[in-house]
TrEMBL record:
The ABC transporter domain, residue ranges: 2-218
Organism for this UniProt entry: Candidatus Egerieimonas intestinavium
Protein known as: ATP-binding cassette domain-containing protein
Top-rank lineage group of the source organism: Bacteria
Listed InterPro entries: AAA+_ATPase, ABC_transporter-like_ATP-bd, ABC_transporter-like_CS, ABC_Transporter_VariousFunc, P-loop_NTPase
Upper taxonomic lineage: Bacteria, Bacillati, Bacillota, Clostridia, Lachnospirales
PROSITE patterns: ABC_TRANSPORTER_1, ABC_TRANSPORTER_2
Protein backbone atom coordinates (compact mmCIF):
# COMPACT_ATOMS: atom_id res chain seq x y z
CA UNK A 1 0.00 0.00 0.00
CA UNK A 2 1.27 3.45 -1.00
CA UNK A 3 -0.02 6.11 1.40
CA UNK A 4 0.28 9.87 0.88
CA UNK A 5 -0.75 12.19 3.71
CA UNK A 6 -1.06 15.99 3.52
CA UNK A 7 1.50 16.30 0.71
CA UNK A 8 2.41 19.89 -0.08
CA UNK A 9 5.01 21.35 -2.41
CA UNK A 10 5.81 24.97 -3.20
CA UNK A 11 8.20 26.64 -5.61
CA UNK A 12 8.78 30.01 -4.03
CA UNK A 13 5.34 31.46 -3.42
CA UNK A 14 3.63 29.14 -5.92
CA UNK A 15 1.80 26.17 -4.44
CA UNK A 16 2.05 23.15 -6.75
CA UNK A 17 0.59 20.52 -4.41
CA UNK A 18 -1.76 21.43 -1.57
CA UNK A 19 -2.73 18.97 1.19
CA UNK A 20 -2.96 15.90 -1.05
CA UNK A 21 -3.94 12.75 0.84
CA UNK A 22 -4.58 9.49 -1.02
CA UNK A 23 -3.73 5.79 -0.82
CA UNK A 24 -3.10 3.23 -3.57
CA UNK A 25 -3.26 -0.57 -3.38
CA UNK A 26 -2.61 -3.07 -6.16
CA UNK A 27 -3.83 -2.14 -9.62
CA UNK A 28 -3.57 0.64 -12.17
CA UNK A 29 -4.60 4.14 -11.08
CA UNK A 30 -5.12 7.09 -13.40
CA UNK A 31 -3.78 10.48 -12.32
CA UNK A 32 -5.70 13.13 -14.23
CA UNK A 33 -5.60 16.89 -14.38
CA UNK A 34 -5.03 19.84 -16.66
CA UNK A 35 -1.52 21.03 -17.49
CA UNK A 36 0.09 22.42 -14.36
CA UNK A 37 -2.27 20.59 -12.01
CA UNK A 38 0.61 18.95 -10.11
CA UNK A 39 0.61 15.45 -11.62
CA UNK A 40 4.30 15.34 -12.53
CA UNK A 41 5.34 16.95 -9.26
CA UNK A 42 3.42 14.33 -7.27
CA UNK A 43 5.10 11.49 -9.18
CA UNK A 44 8.52 13.08 -8.69
CA UNK A 45 7.89 13.36 -4.95
CA UNK A 46 6.91 9.68 -4.77
CA UNK A 47 9.96 8.70 -6.83
CA UNK A 48 12.25 10.55 -4.42
CA UNK A 49 13.46 13.00 -7.04
CA UNK A 50 11.87 15.86 -5.11
CA UNK A 51 12.64 15.60 -1.39
CA UNK A 52 11.94 19.02 0.08
CA UNK A 53 8.18 18.70 0.42
CA UNK A 54 5.81 18.78 3.37
CA UNK A 55 3.69 15.81 4.40
CA UNK A 56 4.45 12.10 4.36
CA UNK A 57 4.80 9.43 1.68
CA UNK A 58 4.78 5.84 2.96
CA UNK A 59 5.99 3.31 0.40
CA UNK A 60 5.20 -0.42 0.41
CA UNK A 61 7.73 -2.49 2.36
CA UNK A 62 10.86 -3.48 0.42
CA UNK A 63 9.56 -1.93 -2.80
CA UNK A 64 11.62 -0.68 -5.70
CA UNK A 65 10.29 2.19 -7.77
CA UNK A 66 10.09 1.99 -11.53
CA UNK A 67 9.77 5.47 -13.01
CA UNK A 68 9.17 6.72 -16.54
CA UNK A 69 9.55 10.51 -16.74
CA UNK A 70 7.99 12.64 -19.46
CA UNK A 71 11.42 12.92 -21.06
CA UNK A 72 13.27 9.62 -20.97
CA UNK A 73 16.86 9.32 -22.10
CA UNK A 74 19.51 6.60 -22.06
CA UNK A 75 23.19 6.39 -23.02
CA UNK A 76 23.05 6.39 -26.80
CA UNK A 77 26.02 4.07 -27.36
CA UNK A 78 24.28 1.20 -25.55
CA UNK A 79 22.12 -1.37 -27.29
CA UNK A 80 18.54 -1.87 -26.13
CA UNK A 81 19.60 -5.02 -24.27
CA UNK A 82 22.58 -3.30 -22.67
CA UNK A 83 20.37 -0.35 -21.69
CA UNK A 84 18.04 -2.63 -19.74
CA UNK A 85 21.01 -4.32 -18.04
CA UNK A 86 22.42 -0.90 -17.16
CA UNK A 87 19.07 0.29 -15.80
CA UNK A 88 18.87 -2.80 -13.58
CA UNK A 89 22.39 -2.10 -12.31
CA UNK A 90 21.50 1.51 -11.47
CA UNK A 91 18.35 0.38 -9.64
CA UNK A 92 20.33 -2.32 -7.79
CA UNK A 93 17.88 -5.02 -8.85
CA UNK A 94 18.34 -8.44 -10.42
CA UNK A 95 16.52 -8.59 -13.74
CA UNK A 96 16.74 -12.04 -15.31
CA UNK A 97 17.26 -12.51 -19.02
CA UNK A 98 13.83 -14.14 -19.13
CA UNK A 99 12.28 -11.05 -17.58
CA UNK A 100 13.98 -8.76 -20.07
CA UNK A 101 12.98 -10.97 -22.99
CA UNK A 102 9.38 -10.91 -21.77
CA UNK A 103 9.32 -7.11 -21.58
CA UNK A 104 10.85 -6.70 -25.02
CA UNK A 105 8.36 -9.16 -26.49
CA UNK A 106 5.32 -7.52 -24.89
CA UNK A 107 6.48 -4.07 -26.01
CA UNK A 108 7.38 -5.16 -29.55
CA UNK A 109 11.09 -4.49 -29.12
CA UNK A 110 12.43 -8.02 -29.61
CA UNK A 111 13.85 -7.26 -33.03
CA UNK A 112 15.49 -4.09 -31.70
CA UNK A 113 17.39 -5.68 -28.80
CA UNK A 114 20.78 -5.32 -30.53
CA UNK A 115 20.06 -1.87 -31.96
CA UNK A 116 21.83 1.08 -30.37
CA UNK A 117 19.72 3.58 -28.47
CA UNK A 118 20.92 6.34 -30.81
CA UNK A 119 19.21 4.56 -33.72
CA UNK A 120 15.81 4.16 -32.05
CA UNK A 121 12.78 6.12 -33.18
CA UNK A 122 10.97 8.27 -30.63
CA UNK A 123 8.30 5.63 -30.16
CA UNK A 124 10.87 2.86 -29.69
CA UNK A 125 12.73 4.94 -27.10
CA UNK A 126 9.47 5.50 -25.25
CA UNK A 127 8.80 1.76 -25.20
CA UNK A 128 12.32 1.15 -23.89
CA UNK A 129 11.52 3.63 -21.12
CA UNK A 130 8.38 1.68 -20.27
CA UNK A 131 10.36 -1.58 -20.22
CA UNK A 132 12.96 -0.27 -17.77
CA UNK A 133 10.21 0.91 -15.42
CA UNK A 134 8.90 -2.67 -15.14
CA UNK A 135 12.23 -4.48 -14.69
CA UNK A 136 11.51 -5.35 -11.06
CA UNK A 137 8.55 -7.68 -10.73
CA UNK A 138 7.72 -6.29 -7.27
CA UNK A 139 8.05 -2.63 -8.14
CA UNK A 140 5.81 0.35 -7.64
CA UNK A 141 5.60 1.85 -11.14
CA UNK A 142 5.15 5.54 -11.93
CA UNK A 143 4.38 6.42 -15.56
CA UNK A 144 4.30 10.05 -16.68
CA UNK A 145 2.54 10.37 -20.06
CA UNK A 146 3.74 6.90 -21.20
CA UNK A 147 1.90 6.90 -24.54
CA UNK A 148 3.40 10.20 -25.73
CA UNK A 149 5.05 9.50 -29.08
CA UNK A 150 3.43 6.10 -29.57
CA UNK A 151 1.49 5.45 -32.77
CA UNK A 152 -2.10 4.12 -32.53
CA UNK A 153 -1.04 0.47 -32.88
CA UNK A 154 1.59 0.78 -30.15
CA UNK A 155 -0.87 2.59 -27.88
CA UNK A 156 -3.20 -0.40 -28.14
CA UNK A 157 -0.27 -2.74 -27.45
CA UNK A 158 0.67 -0.65 -24.40
CA UNK A 159 -2.85 -0.90 -22.98
CA UNK A 160 -2.71 -4.68 -23.34
CA UNK A 161 0.73 -4.67 -21.71
CA UNK A 162 -0.51 -2.60 -18.78
CA UNK A 163 -3.57 -4.78 -18.27
CA UNK A 164 -1.25 -7.78 -17.88
CA UNK A 165 1.62 -6.18 -15.95
CA UNK A 166 -0.51 -4.09 -13.60
CA UNK A 167 -2.31 -6.95 -11.90
CA UNK A 168 0.01 -7.64 -8.96
CA UNK A 169 1.63 -4.28 -8.40
CA UNK A 170 0.69 -0.63 -7.98
CA UNK A 171 0.92 1.46 -11.15
CA UNK A 172 0.25 5.20 -11.23
CA UNK A 173 -0.51 6.43 -14.74
CA UNK A 174 -0.40 10.18 -15.32
CA UNK A 175 -2.00 11.02 -18.65
CA UNK A 176 -4.13 13.55 -20.50
CA UNK A 177 -5.48 10.84 -22.82
CA UNK A 178 -8.72 9.95 -21.08
CA UNK A 179 -9.49 6.98 -23.34
CA UNK A 180 -6.35 5.30 -21.98
CA UNK A 181 -7.73 5.65 -18.47
CA UNK A 182 -11.04 3.99 -19.24
CA UNK A 183 -9.26 1.04 -20.88
CA UNK A 184 -6.79 0.16 -18.13
CA UNK A 185 -7.47 1.94 -14.82
CA UNK A 186 -9.41 0.57 -11.87
CA UNK A 187 -9.55 3.93 -10.13
CA UNK A 188 -8.69 7.54 -10.89
CA UNK A 189 -7.86 10.71 -9.03
CA UNK A 190 -8.06 14.25 -10.36
CA UNK A 191 -5.73 17.06 -9.37
CA UNK A 192 -6.79 20.65 -9.89
CA UNK A 193 -4.63 23.52 -8.76
CA UNK A 194 -2.55 21.06 -6.76
CA UNK A 195 -5.52 19.68 -4.84
CA UNK A 196 -7.11 16.25 -5.01
CA UNK A 197 -10.68 17.06 -6.07
CA UNK A 198 -11.84 13.57 -7.03
CA UNK A 199 -10.99 9.99 -6.15
CA UNK A 200 -13.03 7.00 -7.25
CA UNK A 201 -13.69 4.38 -9.89
CA UNK A 202 -13.99 5.09 -13.59
CA UNK A 203 -17.73 4.47 -13.35
CA UNK A 204 -18.03 6.95 -10.49
CA UNK A 205 -16.21 9.55 -12.58
CA UNK A 206 -18.52 8.94 -15.54
CA UNK A 207 -21.50 9.37 -13.21
CA UNK A 208 -20.43 12.98 -12.57
CA UNK A 209 -21.83 13.84 -16.02
CA UNK A 210 -25.53 13.79 -16.93
CA UNK A 211 -26.71 10.26 -17.69
CA UNK A 212 -27.18 10.92 -21.40
CA UNK A 213 -23.60 12.27 -21.64
CA UNK A 214 -21.85 9.73 -19.39
CA UNK A 215 -18.22 9.23 -20.44
CA UNK A 216 -14.80 9.63 -18.89
CA UNK A 217 -14.28 12.86 -20.82
CA UNK A 218 -17.57 14.40 -19.71
CA UNK A 219 -17.15 13.17 -16.15
CA UNK A 220 -13.72 14.80 -16.03
CA UNK A 221 -15.05 18.09 -17.39
CA UNK A 222 -17.89 18.12 -14.86
CA UNK A 223 -15.49 17.28 -12.03
CA UNK A 224 -13.18 20.22 -12.79
CA UNK A 225 -16.08 22.62 -13.30
CA UNK A 226 -15.63 23.02 -17.05
CA UNK A 227 -19.26 22.17 -17.75
Amino acid sequence: MLEISHLEKKYGTKTVLADVSVSFGEGVYGILGENGAGKTTMLRCIAGIIRNYQGTIRLPKDCHIGYLPQRFGMMEELTVWEALKYAALLKKIKASDDRMEQLLRLLNLEEQKDKRVAKLSGGMLRRLGIAQAFLDEESLVLLDEPTAGLDPVERIRFKEFLQEMGRKRTVLLSTHLLNDVEAVCQKVMILQGGRNIFEGTVEELKARAPEDEASVEEGFLWAIGAR
